[in-house]
C-alpha cells in the first residue's frame, strides 16, 4: 500500500549537492515535545501510514503521548534493517529456504521470499576456546571452528548468493554488535524508493538481545526472537504498545579507578530495582555530552540486563566524531548531522522533555563493582567481594565444605591445590566491553604494570581475550601491549562471543576431573553481560561479571576469596608486597595511550574487506540455485516440519482439553533453561540422536551451533543441566514424569513428549515470575511448540519470549494477579482443560480463559487465566498457527 501522508509531511532536504525525500516531524503538532526515541517512532509511522494498519489516529496518539498514562495504544513499527548473529541467523535462513519450498507447494513463486529490509548476518557465535595460552591459539580455534561448522557455513554462503539484500560477515571478523556500531549502523538511512532517495532514521531489530548496544549511537533498535526478525525481513511490522519512557539523567564525571563497566553494573542494578521491563530508557541532561560514545554503547548493551526494551542516547557531536573516527563517508556524516538537526533529533540539553519516570545518577559516586554469582543485576562493590563470596559459597557447597580443596598435578609439571572459589576461567570477552577502548586499554596497561612487578596469572586459570573486532588487536599492537598481555597468559583466542555464551571451551582435563571428583565450586570471571547458572561452563558453578582490568586482576589473585584492598597480589623483585592499587593505571595514562594508538585508518583497513573472509571462507564449496538442496545426511542443517501439511486457508483455533503438565517450574526460568546454547553429553536425548547419526562425542559442538537442525533442538529443549522441574524431587536437568505410564515414572522431557504426542495428549508448562527472561532465543519457543506444548501458564513473562510463543502458535497465559501454581495448590499431576480460546475465531481476543485442573482424586481447581495475546497482530499470528504461516499465506495471496 502506498503512503497516505495525512499530515502532508513529505518534503525534501538538501545536503550539499544531494536531495533527499523526508517526512518532516514538524508537520505533526506535539512532536517537538516528545522524547528522542518516540520522535523516531513517529517518523516511522508518518512514513509507513497506509490508512489500514497504520492510520492518522496512530500518528496523533503518538504525537499527543501522555507520559503518565499506562501503555494501551498499539502501533506498528517497521524497522529499517535486520541484524543477526549466526546462532539465531542460521534458523532464520533455514526458515526462509523452507518458506521458498512451501510457497512453491502452495502454487506461488519461491523467488518472492527475500528480505524486503536489508539483512546482515555476522558469524560470531561459533568460535570456541579450545586452545588458549599460546600464540597459535587463534589459528587453532579457527581451524576447529571451520571443521565443526563447515556445513552451516556452506549453507550461509548459499544464502548470501540466493537472497537479495542479505549479506554475511564471515567468521573471525568480530562480534555482531561491535561490527554494527563500528561499521553497519547508518544512523540515518538513505535508500532508493520509487526513483527518489529517501532519508529516514536508521532503526533495526536484531536476533540477539544485545542489539541495544547500537542505542548508544542514537539508533533505535532492540533484540527480538528469530521468529520476529524473519517477519521483519519479510516486511511485517513489529506490533508494540507505545511505551513508557524513563528519563535517566547523568551528571558528574567517572572518578579515577572506576571504569565504564562499573558504571554499567551500577545502572543495571538501579534500573532493575526501579523496574523498567517493557519501557524505553533515555539518557538526558548536561552530563550526556561528556559521556564518550564507547561508554554509551556499553550502557546501551546492558539494556536486556536491566529489562528495558531500549536504552537510548540522542545524536550529538559525540556521535558525529565517532562516525568520523570509524571511517564513515563524509557524505554519510553530513547527512546524519543535517537530518538530525532538521528533524529535532539533535540533542539539545536545554530542551524541556517530559518523561514517564525519572532517575538520576551522579557518575562521581560510582565505585568499582562486580556482579554475581548468577545474575547481572546482583552487583557487589569490589570492597565487599570477599565477604559476599563467604556468604554465597554456602549455597554451592555442603556444610563444613567451604574450604575444601584438591591437589592437582599437570603433565607439564605445574602442581597446585585447587580450592572452592578458585578462578578457573578469566576471560576478556563479549561485545559489552571489548568495544570500549577505555576498559580494554586499562586491561592492557594493568598487564604491563603487573608484568613489570613480576606478577603472573595463577597456573589453574584458563585465560583468554576475544576482542569484538580486529581493530582492538590493531590498537593493542600499536600501543605495544600485546606482549604484556601474553606474558600474563592472555592471548587472543578468537574474534567472537566465546565465554559470554558458553563457548569457553573445556577446562584442562586434570582440572575438570578434580572439580568433578571433589565437587568443588569454582568460579569464572568474565567481562561479559550474562552470567546465568550453567551458562559459562559445565564445570563452573559461580560466574562473575567484571571489567576487563578486573578480569586480569582476578587471574593474578586466582580466587574469588580475595580482598584487593588488604591482600597483596604477590611480591616484586625486592620482595615488597604488590597491591592492586600499585598497578592500576591512571585515567590520564589510559587516555593518552588511546589518543596515540587508535586512528581512522585501522577501521578503514579492517572493514574495507569485511565481507570477503579469509582463505578458509573463500575455499568453501557453495551450493547454488534459488532453493536449497538439503543434504539428507546433514546433522547441522535440516528442513524443519513447521509447514508440513499447511493449507492456504486457516483452520479454526480450538480449546485445549485433557492436557498434561510437561514441566512445573519456578521463578526466573530463563531462555537458557528452556533452550541451552552450550555443550551437552552423550547420554542426553540430543547426544543419543547424534551418536545414532554417526557423530563422535568430540564433534558434538554446542546446542547453539546445531540450531539449524530441529531434531537436535527439540531434544535440547528444557534440557539445561540446572533446570528444576518441580514434578520431581531433588532432580536437576531435563527430566519429568510421564503420565502416559502407570504411576508417572521419571524420564527425559523429550521421551515423555514423544509418548504424549503419540497418544494425542496436549501439554502445558506451568511457570513462575519472569518466565523466559534472558537471550531472545527463538528455539525456546520453537522447541516448546515441537514438544507438543499448547499453552504456557506463568505468573509473568519476559517480553520477547512471550511474543515468540505466540509466533509459534503457543498460547501464553498468566495466573490471576497474586496467584501461582503454589497458591492454587497445583502440583503438576493434574489434567488441564482450557476453555474460551475459541472466541479468537470471531476476530476478538478474550481477556481471560477458564482453566480447570482436575486432580487424581477427582477434585478440581478452577481459575480465570489472563490471555497474554496483547495486540490484534499477535491474534492474527495465533489464528494462523504462527507468524511464518501468516506471512506465507499473505505472500501467496498477493
UniProtKB/TrEMBL annotation:
Residues 688-817 form the Aconitase A/isopropylmalate dehydratase small subunit swivel domain. Its EC number is 4.2.1.3. Its cofactor is [4Fe-4S] cluster. Residues 68-558 form the Aconitase/3-isopropylmalate dehydratase large subunit alpha/beta/alpha domain. SUPFAM superfamilies: Aconitase iron-sulfur domain (SSF53732), LeuD/IlvD-like (SSF52016). It is an enzyme of class 4 (lyase). Keywords: 4Fe-4S, Iron, Iron-sulfur, Lyase, Metal-binding. The keyword Cell membrane does not apply. Pfam families: Aconitase, Aconitase_C. It catalyses: citrate = D-threo-isocitrate. Catalyzes the isomerization of citrate to isocitrate via cis-aconitate. PANTHER family: ACONITASE/IRON-RESPONSIVE ELEMENT FAMILY MEMBER (PTHR11670). Belongs to the aconitase/IPM isomerase family. This is Aconitate hydratase. It comes from Brevibacterium pityocampae.
Amino acid at each position: 500500500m502506498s503512503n497516505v501522508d495525512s499530515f502532508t509531511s513529505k518534503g525534501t532536504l538538501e545536503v550539499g549537492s544531494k536531495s533527499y525525500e523526508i517526512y518532516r516531524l514538524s508537520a505533526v503538532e506535539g512532536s517537538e515535545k516528545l522524547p528522542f526515541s518516540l520522535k523516531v517512532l513517529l517518523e516511522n509511522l508518518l512514513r509507513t501510514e497506509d490508512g489500514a494498519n497504520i492510520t492518522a489516529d496512530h500518528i496523533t496518539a503518538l504525537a499527543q503521548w501522555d507520559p503518565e498514562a499506562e501503555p494501551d495504544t498499539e502501533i506498528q513499527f517497521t524497522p529499517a534493517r535486520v541484524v543477526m548473529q549466526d546462532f539465531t541467523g542460521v534458523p532464520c535462513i533455514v526458515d526462509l529456504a523452507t518458506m521458498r519450498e512451501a510457497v512453491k507447494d502452495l502454487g506461488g513463486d519461491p523467488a518472492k521470499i527475500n528480505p524486503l529490509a536489508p539483512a546482515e548476518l555476522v558469524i560470531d557465535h561459533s568460535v570456541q576456546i579450545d586452545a588458549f595460552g599460546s600464540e597459535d591459539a587463534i589459528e587453532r580455534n579457527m581451524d576447529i571452528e571451520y571443521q565443526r561448522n563447515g556445513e552451516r557455513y556452506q549453507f550461509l554462503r548459499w544464502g548470501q548468493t540466493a537472497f537479495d539484500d542479505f549479506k554475511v560477515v564471515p567468521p573471525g571478523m568480530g562480534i555482531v554488535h561491535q561490527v554494527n556500531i563500528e561499521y553497519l549502523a547508518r544512523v540515518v538511512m538513505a535508500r532508493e524508493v520509487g526513483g527518489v532517495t529517501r532519508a529516514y532514521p536508521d532503526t533495526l531489530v536484531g536476533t540477539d538481545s544485545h542489539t541495544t548496544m547500537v542505542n548508544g549511537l542514537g539508533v533505535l533498535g532492540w533484540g527480538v526472537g528469530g521468529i520476529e526478525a524473519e517477519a521483519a525481513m519479510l516486511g511485517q511490522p513489529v506490533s508494540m504498545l507505545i511505551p513508557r519512557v524513563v528519563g535517566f539523567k547523568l551528571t558528574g564525571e567517572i572518578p579515577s579507578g572506576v571504569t565504564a563497566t562499573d558504571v554499567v553494573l551500577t545502572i543495571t542494578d538501579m534500573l532493575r530495582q526501579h523496574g523498567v521491563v517493557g519501557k524505553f530508557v533515555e539518557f538526558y541532561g548536561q552530563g550526556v555530552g561528556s559521556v564518550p560514545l564507547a561508554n554509551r554503547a556499553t550502557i546501551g548493551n546492558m539494556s536486556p540486563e536491566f529489562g528495558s526494551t531500549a536504552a537510548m542516547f540522542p545524536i550529538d557531536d559525540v556521535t558525529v566524531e565517532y562516525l568520523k573516527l570509524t571511517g564513515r563517508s563524509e557524505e554519510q556524516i553530513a547527512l546524519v548531522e543535517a537530518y538530525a538537526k532538521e528533524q529535532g533529533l539533535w540533542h539539545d540539553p536545554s530542551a524541556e522533555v517530559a518523561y514517564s519516570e525519572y532517575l538520576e545518577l551522579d557518575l562521581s559516586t560510582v565505585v568499582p563493582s562486580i556482579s554475581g554469582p548468577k545474575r547481572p543485576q546482583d552487583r557487589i562493590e569490589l570492597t565487599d567481594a570477599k565477604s559476599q563470596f563467604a556468604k554465597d559459597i554456602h549455597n554451592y557447597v555442603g556444610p563444613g565444605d567451604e574450604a575444601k580443596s584438591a591437589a592437582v598435578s599437570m603433565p607439564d609439571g605445574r602442581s597446585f591445590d585447587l580450592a572452592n572459589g578458585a578462578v578457573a576461567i578469566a576471560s576478556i570477552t563479549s561485545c559489552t566491553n571489548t568495544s570500549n577502548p577505555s576498559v580494554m586499554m586499562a586491561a592492557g596497561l594493568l598487564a604491563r604494570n603487573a608484568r613489570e612487578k613480576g606478577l603472573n596469572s595463577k597456573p589453574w586459570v584458563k585465560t583468554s581475550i576475544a576482542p569484538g573486532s580486529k581493530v582492538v588487536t590493531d590498537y593493542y599492537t600499536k600501543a605495544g601491549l600485546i606482549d604484556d598481555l601474553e606474558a600474563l597468559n592472555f592471548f587472543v583466542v578468537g574474534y567472537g562471543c566465546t565465554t559470554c555464551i558458553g563457548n569457553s571451551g573445556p577446562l584442562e582435563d586434570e582440572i575438570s576431573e578434580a572439580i568433578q571428583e571433589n565437587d568443588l565450586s569454582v568460579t569464572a570471571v568474565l567481562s561479559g553481560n550474562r552470567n546465568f547458572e550453567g551458562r559459562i561452563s559445565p564445570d563452573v558453578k559461580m560466574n562473575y561479571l567484571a571489567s576487563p582490568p578486573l578480569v586480569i586482576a582476578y587471574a593474578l589473585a586466582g580466587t574469588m576469596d580475595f580482598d584487593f584492598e588488604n591482600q597483596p597480589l604477590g611480591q616484586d623483585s625486592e620482595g615488597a608486597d604488590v597491591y592492586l592499587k600499585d598497578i592500576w593505571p591512571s585515567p590520564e595514562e589510559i587516555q593518552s595511550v588511546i589518543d596515540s594508538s587508535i586512528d581512522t585508518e585501522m577501521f578503514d583497513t579492517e572493514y574495507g574487506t569485511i565481507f570477503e573472509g579469509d582463505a578458509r571462507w573463500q575455499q568453501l564449496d557453495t551450493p547454488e540455485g534459488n532453493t536449497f538442496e538439503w543434504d539428507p545426511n546433514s546433522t547441522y542443517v535440516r528442513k524443519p516440519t513447521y509447514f508440513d501439511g499447511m493449507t492456504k486457508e486457516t483452520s479454526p483455533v480450538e480449546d485445549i482439553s485433557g492436557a498434561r503438565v510437561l514441566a512445573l517450574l519456578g521463578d526466573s526460568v530463563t531462555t537458557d533453561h528452556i533452550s541451552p546454547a552450550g555443550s551437552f553429553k552423550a547420554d542426553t536425548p540430543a547426544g543419543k540422536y547424534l551418536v545414532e547419526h554417526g557423530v563422535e562425542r568430540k564433534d558434538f559442538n554446542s546446542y547453539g551451533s546445531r540450531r539449524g537442525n530441529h531434531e537436535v533442538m527439540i531434544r535440547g529443549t528444557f534440557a539445561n543441566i540446572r533446570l528444576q522441574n518441580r514434578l520431581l524431587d531433588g532432580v536437576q536437568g531435563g527430566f519429568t514424569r510421564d503420565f502416559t505410564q502407570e504411576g508417572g515414572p521419571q524420564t527425559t522431557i523429550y521421551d515423555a513428549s514423544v509418548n504424549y504426542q503419540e497418544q494425542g495428549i496436549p501439554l502445558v508448562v506451568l511457570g513462575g515470575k519472569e518466565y523466559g527472561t534472558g537471550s531472545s532465543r527463538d528455539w525456546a519457543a520453537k522447541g516448546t511448540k515441537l514438544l507438543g506444548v499448547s499453552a504456557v501458564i506463568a505468573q509473568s513473562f519476559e517480553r520477547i519470549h512471550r511474543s515468540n510463543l505466540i509466533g509459534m502458535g503457543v498460547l501464553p497465559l498468566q495466573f490471576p494477579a497474586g496467584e501461582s501454581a503454589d497458591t492454587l495448590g497445583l502440583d503438576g499431576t493434574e489434567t488441564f482443560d482450557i476453555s474460551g480460546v475459541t472466541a479468537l475465531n470471531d476476530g476478538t481476543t478474550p481477556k481471560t480463559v477458564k482453566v480447570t485442573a482436575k486432580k487424581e482424586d477427582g477434585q478440581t481447581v478452577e481459575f480465570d487465566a489472563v490471555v497474554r495475546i496483547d495486540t490484534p497482530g499477535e491474534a492474527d499470528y495465533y489464528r494462523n498457527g504462527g507468524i511464518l504461516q501468516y506471512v506465507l499465506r499473505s505472500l501467496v495471496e498477493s
